[in-house]
Amino acid sequence: MITIGPLEAADRAAWQKLFEGYNTFYERTVPQEVYDRAWAGFQSGERMHALTAKLDATMVGIVHFLVHASTTSADVCYLQDLFTSDEARGKGVGRQLIAAVRDWAVEQGCSRVYWHTKHDNHTARLLYDKVAENRGFIHYVIPLDR
């Protein structure tokens, strides 16, 4: 049985392993400080939020999300990161994590939940096309060197 819930202090190692898997999938190398900062942010729950999916008490999925203002509607919820372990794929974990974020956003008074994915992430898009509407926007980024 899949259970969805908040991150707990004891989840740190399992969460980081999944988040590392997410970053590896997107071919990113992330320093430990980034994981530490994200973990601290999720623990405070002020700006960033996280949920986990557990299958028989083993963490098999994570989702990270945040709320931001909108000029044309009530606040919106951005689902930033969603990842499931290989062994959990196809078992409804991603769908349940998305549904949990949607429910959370409704409780917060948000007008919508949205996210981005790469155009060639065909496996994820099979799910996304079933649970959300692709509005056809193209995503642009200006990296800021620090």
TrEMBL record:
**Keyword match Acyltransferase:** yes
Q: What is this protein called?
A: GNAT family acetyltransferase
**Which CDD domains does the protein's record reference?**
NAT_SF
Domain (N-acetyltransferase): give its ranges.
Answer: 2-146
- GO MF terms on file? acyltransferase activity, transferring groups other than amino-acyl groups
**Per its UniProt record, what PROSITE patterns does this chain match?**
GNAT (PS51186)
One Pfam family, please name it.
Answer: Acetyltransf_1
Q: Which UniProt keywords apply?
A: Acyltransferase, Transferase
